[in-house]
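Morning run. Coffee first, then this:
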Amino acid sequence: MHAPLNVWKWIESNRESFSPPIGNKLMYKNTLSLMFVGGPNRRTDYHIDESSEFFFQLQGNMELLIIERGERRLVSIRQGEVFLLPSRIPHSPQRPESGSMGFVLERARTIPDEYDCMRWYRDFNSCDDVEFEKFFHCTDLGKDLAPIAQAYAEFKKGGASIDGQKDGVTEDSVRPIEDNKESVVPDPFNIWGWIAKHADEFATGKSINLFGDDHPDNEFKIFLSSRIEEVIDAEKCEVMVWQLRGEADMKNGEIVYHLDDGACIVIPEGSSSTLNRDTTSSLTMIIHCDRLGNKT
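And here it is:
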């Protein structure tokens, strides 16, 4: 178990990594991937993956284009807002604002035969007709996307030849995954306003599901908790813990980690930890992942 990192201090110490053209850096990578993404940054492709994605916009604003039930939808995620995207929904993050900073959480592709896809449409504004797409096994987001973008560039020049594709589009007979065309995704909302709305409950020491029980995503369960003491079980998968307000202590085995305001730590899979707070004004985000949650 790695020592906790303070999110804000970590961002400042890695500020140079958030400049174009890359604009992103992983804080942590194992089963869960904790990534911070800065602007400005734009892209013309859509990404489809078998992991859900949690967005928390820390500074500035971003736009997330998604294909929801076959229709293009623009999701505006403003500063302080959170958004949970179920797996297999095509999406294209746009971060036009310089100095913006967002947090994105997804999981590694640890289940056999999971695929990602990068897709370009002939008209980026309508997304009616696919021009080019490539399915691939993704092991490193920072390295695996660039070759696909290069293949698309070669295709545009007329020189691409890819197995299983005709005119740049994957044939149905060899398509490894299908888009999620069923889910309607709830709008983003401001997390601080949501916390204020539930202030009376948190004052009594509650743990509340941030996205409720009827969200279409079943992979990530994200709770905000003010309980004085609670056991966090990471039996199925790693658990991310983010101290949003105040301080807490976490005991894992014989080691006690102090979590200051803004600290983030990941509990290893197969273990459990006990979180203790001195007061219910201390508030912690706890993210559980069920890797098979969207498979049924």
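The chain has a mean pLDDT of 93. Good start to the day.
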